[in-house]
Amino acid sequence: MSNHQDQPRFSLPVRVYYEDTDLNSVVFYANYIKFMERARTEWLRSLGIELDVLRRREGMLFAVQRMETEFLRPAFFNDLLTVTVALRGSGGASLDFVQEVRREADAACCCRGRTKVICVDEKTLRPKRLPKTLLAEIADGH
Amino acid sequence: MSNHQDQPRFSLPVRVYYEDTDLNSVVFYANYIKFMERARTEWLRSLGIELDVLRRREGMLFAVQRMETEFLRPAFFNDLLTVTVALRGSGGASLDFVQEVRREADAACCCRGRTKVICVDEKTLRPKRLPKTLLAEIADGH
Amino acid sequence: MSNHQDQPRFSLPVRVYYEDTDLNSVVFYANYIKFMERARTEWLRSLGIELDVLRRREGMLFAVQRMETEFLRPAFFNDLLTVTVALRGSGGASLDFVQEVRREADAACCCRGRTKVICVDEKTLRPKRLPKTLLAEIADGH
Amino acid sequence: MSNHQDQPRFSLPVRVYYEDTDLNSVVFYANYIKFMERARTEWLRSLGIELDVLRRREGMLFAVQRMETEFLRPAFFNDLLTVTVALRGSGGASLDFVQEVRREADAACCCRGRTKVICVDEKTLRPKRLPKTLLAEIADGH
């Protein structure tokens, strides 16, 4: 596993809309998972990597294999959130992320998660080595 | 357009979970659209038609082309709803449904919708005639 | 009903993420409803109206009463969409919107919808007159 | 922490609909979180505990505090899944669950998760002791 501890953090602003809330008047916890995925997609885009292009060119997809998620404080309708992405490590076919969802107004950390994403073959859905070009682009992202 | 006014109604029970609600403590209105689609899928299954089999055998998909939806009364967490499906008409490549979402407890009509679904080619996403076998199975459903 | 035909259009960019797609590799149609609601929320914010403030100060909520939606062309993962908001009319307790979802790349109109939103009392969920301040802010939005 | 290892498993059937899938033609991983919550809600109901009644009588809500989730095999459109619920432990204000999502057809385990749920006060959203009646009903569930 390569170590990427020094990788600068990427962050994406996410606004909380009605669709994200539940009857407790807070963000429904499963929706933080979506916010963290949006941020990973934008982090890749910031490195010049588009998932649909990767699929066409390399016949590969990313699949989430494992998540650990802590829900620390409620976020509310209309909150402006900041979702960070930090790559913590990479293996032959996997990327390991640490992410946080913070509220802009008071910097409260609402949710924190660790996500292991694996590269899989588009057809077989079986693990596949990460393309070298992708690893190079990620390394250049430093 | 063939007329299917006499078609008996199909109905599917749907329970309201946390995921379905929003901060107004009611079912988030866009979720009724999902409930109505679940009921159409189960109506087809009740006629012996499985959407994944149709896709493999006939290379066809269904796509929603048009919806008119009225939200009449709020539904709440834990409500048991009944979603009905009535086929109102069919064209060469389309099916026209009228559906209701009622609360079991008081028979209140929470949502009513009309949905036009078209048959499209799996590859091109362009309209395609409904397979005759499908029309026969629907007619037999009477 | 007041007429607001000349109201300038508001627009919100929306990116299509994995969460928005379905197995047909297109945006799941019910998700356009969410995109249109996000845009209405941002349109109100652009006029200085925050829904959570309205609720606290006026004890009012907005509820969607009726929608007519046409799905014209598929949108795909990674598409950048533009969601427009045009207020077409307003009644004592209602606002009537026309909205479009267009793909930036080719200006294709993927979805078009008309939505009637009513002002309801937070407690009773029954219709309530739109606050005059809100109507003034909307009128000033011209 | 009380130990509940011997607690019989509860299970809920869940059908995969279009809304649950993504462009990889599999169940979008965040949706397993919803399936597991539906099963916990039905497990409580099977013990005579309704979340809306708990809220009205005890002024309490459940909130998810922590999840560990593994995505082991893809599930597909139309799959009939079985979602199990096993209570592994309980603390003064928390319940600890282990859950699995299996495909009926081949018993493949698609997703496995551990979820810590805490009891919170409806108003303050701060932790609150589990009502004794609830613990008794859970113990009787053996």
What is this structure's SSE topology?
The structure is a homotetramer of 142-residue chains.
Chain A: E1 2-3, E2 10-15, H1 30-46, H2 51-58, E3 60-71, E4 80-90, E5 94-103, E6 109-121, H3 132-140
Antiparallel strand pairs in A: 1-4, 2-4, 3-6, 4-5, 5-6
- The amount of helix of chain A comes to 10-25%
Give the CA-based shape of chain A: elongated
Task: List unreliable stretches of 5+ residues of chain A.
Answer: none
The total strand number of chain A stands at: 6
| SS-derived structural category of chain A | alpha+beta
Separation of the first and last Cα atoms of chain A: 17 Å
User: In CATH terms, what is the architecture of chain A?
Assistant: Roll
| Helical segment count of chain A | 3
Fold-level CATH name of chain A = Thiol Ester Dehydrase, Chain A
Largest interface, chains and sizes:
A-D, 20 and 20 residues
The tally of structural domains of chain A comes to 1
Query: Could you tell me the mean pLDDT of chain A?
Result: 93
CATH class of chain A: Alpha Beta
Strand content range of chain A = 35-45%
Q: Whole-number radius of gyration of chain A?
A: 16 Å
SSE ordering of chain A: EEHHEEEEH
Supply the CATH superfamily name of chain A. Answer: Hotdog Thioesterase
Biggest sheet features of chain A: 6 strands, antiparallel
Oligomer: homotetramer
